[in-house]
Write a structure and sequence with these properties.
The protein is of the alpha/beta class. The protein is built from 15 helices and eight strands. β7, α7 and β8 form a beta-alpha-beta unit. The termini are far apart.
Length: 337
């Protein structure tokens, strides 16, 4: 099924966001099958209708089922949703590609720029799956998984260059607590999502140093400006950055204690090393730690200034202190806004 009704959904990835979005789709009345890498998670979803490892205390709908076989998850699906970290998407998709149903819409939940290739997630999907860009959509916005799983009111954006596909997805995942908007600016939507993780690290670093709301607001505003500068240079619509994929996602991720990137940054701001922050984060590195490398390289390639992202990169990968990062940012050459 190309861009008609989306009734059956495959979600590949049973982490917090993958499971949450699968719940949203099931609550919207769709038949959803989620692929889980670990058999015990699939068993929990099928027998106890829960995923305590990632969404403790959240009841999952009966119509949401799980499997450890990707081909089984995708069998008969009208849309396939990829819910794995950005830097693992290519390797996973190479394994899944033989099972992708023909003509279905492929949806990315990942936010990032691939290291090495400097490709956006939609570009990685189109390349590895061998499909036209028009078949690829992204879902992005101020979407903290825990709040959505608790059915707190949330708005999101589905971006796809094929407007009809975006509308089909919009109708398929709208619920009483999850409101979906559409946009055809795939570049802007993806760059907003990738950039906000890096700026959230900066906001976390500032919070860890004891700085308050003025500093955070300044970082959010100027961080959005540099993200938009790079996005527009790549072909994005500047208005996209004033919406859910830009300002909306930036504010949520930079402000919430539930944001992994902000929390990770706070540890760095308190003087912990990258390894110490990673250990405290159950061995997981926040997406922005890797994305800052790709975003800074992409910006350098296009001669775009991204001073906040550069500061985050130096703290994470060149052992710069948080205090030195703050000093470099505040003493930059004065200029018009």
């Amino acid at each position: 099924m190309s861009c008609g009704h989306v009734r059956r959904i495959a979600v590949l990835g049973a982490g917090s966001w993958g499971t949450t979005f699968a719940k949203v789709m099931a609550d919207a009345g769709r038949e959803v099958r989620i692929w889980a890498r670990r058999p015990e998670i699939a068993d929990q979803i099928n027998t106890a209708h829960s995923n305590p490892d990632y969404l403790p205390g959240i009841a999952l709908p009966d119509r949401l089922t799980a499997t450890t076989h990707p081909d089984e998850a995708m069998d008969g699906a009208d849309a396939v949703v990829f819910a794995v970290p950005s830097q693992t998407l290519r390797a996973n998709l190479e394994r899944w590609q033989p099972f992708l149903p023909a003509e279905v819409t492929l949806v990315s939940l990942a936010k990032g720029v691939e290291l090495g290739s400097l490709k956006r997630m939609s570009e990685v999907i189109a390349e590895v799956a061998g499909v036209a860009t028009e078949r690829v959509a992204v879902l992005t916005g101020p979407n903290l998984a825990g709040e959505i799983a608790e059915e707190q009111p949330t708005a999101t954006l589905v971006a796809c260059t094929d407007h009809e596909r975006a509308v089909a997805l919009q109708l398929a995942c709208t619920t009483g607590y999850f409101r979906v908007y559409t946009n055809t600016d795939l570049i802007g939507a993806e760059m907003g999502g990738a950039g906000k993780n890096v700026i959230a690290l900066a906001c976390g670093i500032a919070a860890g140093m004891g700085f308050g709301d003025n500093t955070r607001a300044s970082l959010i505003t100027r961080g959005l400006a540099e993200t938009a500068r790079l996005g527009v240079c790549l072909g994005a619509d500047p208005l996209t950055f004033a919406g859910l994929a830009g300002m909306g996602d930036m504010v949520a991720t930079c402000s919430s204690a539930r944001s992994r990137n902000r929390s990770f940054g706070e540890r760095l701001g308190r003087g912990e090393s990258l390894a110490e922050a990673e250990a405290a984060n159950h061995g997981q590195v926040a997406e922005g730690v890797k994305s800052c490398l790709a975003i800074c390289e992409l910006a350098a390639r296009h001669d775009v200034e991204v001073p906040i992202a550069e500061g985050v990169r130096r703290v994470c990968h060149e052992s710069m202190s948080a205090a030195e990062m703050a000093k470099q940012l505040i003493t930059r050459t004065l200029k018009p806004e």
